[in-house]
Amino acid sequence: KSGCELFLRFITLAKFDTFAIDECRQKLIERGQVFLERTLSSRQRIAEYSQEFIVDGSIILTHSHSRVVLTLLAYASKFARFRVFVTESEPDKSGAKMRDELEAIGIPSICILDASVAYVMEKVTFVLMGAEAVVESGGIINKIGTFNIAIAAREMNKPFYVASESFKFVRYYPLNNRDLPDHFKYKASTIARLSEQNLEMEHPLVDYTPPAYITLLFTDIGTLTPSAVSDELIKLYI
């Protein structure tokens, strides 16, 4: 949704010197192509901005499967040698897929139980997460279990970094996990199948991690503190 909103905003913020329909249409197409090119290159820019944070000997903990985190680590592996712990990430075991893809590009990786996060946190240099969405407060919505990891990282004074494209910035301000709407927490098919009362028995797919637990966000518009996200949202949407 946020990507669509930004796309519409970008292509319509065009100054036209003519009222000819064909020329206006061509201008909109050109701006759409520029937006697509920027979006496709966003992960590479994130990887470049975050490179200095990954050094030889780093031990990184990540959660679930994230394409932007995979791109970031693949780029960093050209300059540093490091190891990665990947949570199994139930219920879909997406962490196993992430581990396999990291191993395929030569990055030593170990898949760990979700329940062992606090145990391995002592060995970790920092935590690196992707995000399903970055909200106005600078917090993130991500795969269920992310908040658990953030709590453990904070308790053990480990940096908690988030890598996210700016098109995932959303104009939404949840106060806590109970405040997340159902369309964030469950699949559309699950919502259609179950009543509101029965949804309470379902496992949510995502959780909300407040900004207080996040050290920095690596984005295609730069490295941001959580408090800077609201300012960037204003620039993106207004």
Walk me through the topology.
Blueprint lengths: L1 H11 L8 H20 L1 H9 L7 E5 L4 H10 L5 E6 L6 H11 L4 E4 L4 H5 L4 E4 L3 E2 L5 E4 L2 H10 L4 E4 L18 H4 L2 H6 L2 H4 L6 E4 L6 E4 L2 E3 L4 H9 L1
Parallel strand pairs: 1-2, 1-4, 2-3, 4-7, 7-9
Antiparallel strand pairs: 5-6, 6-8, 9-10
Offer a few descriptive terms:
238 residues, Rossmann fold, alpha/beta, three-stranded antiparallel sheet, 10 strands, 2 domains
Account of the protein in words:
By secondary structure, this protein is an alpha/beta fold. It folds into 2 domains: 39 residues, no CATH class; 196 residues, Translation initiation factor eif-2b, domain 2 (Rossmann fold). Helix content is 42%, strand content 17%. It is built from 11 helices and 10 strands. The strands form 2 sheets. The chain has a 7-stranded mixed beta sheet, sandwiched between helices. It starts with a helix and ends with a helix.
Poorly predicted runs: 9-14
Percent helix, as a range, is 40-55%
Q: Give the averaged pLDDT, no decimals.
A: 83
User: In percent terms, what proportion of residues is strand?
Assistant: 15-25%
Say which CATH homologous superfamily of the largest domain is assigned.
Translation initiation factor eif-2b, domain 2
CATH domain topology of the largest domain: Rossmann fold
Helix and strand composition category: alpha/beta
Number of strands: 10
Distance between the termini: 16 Å
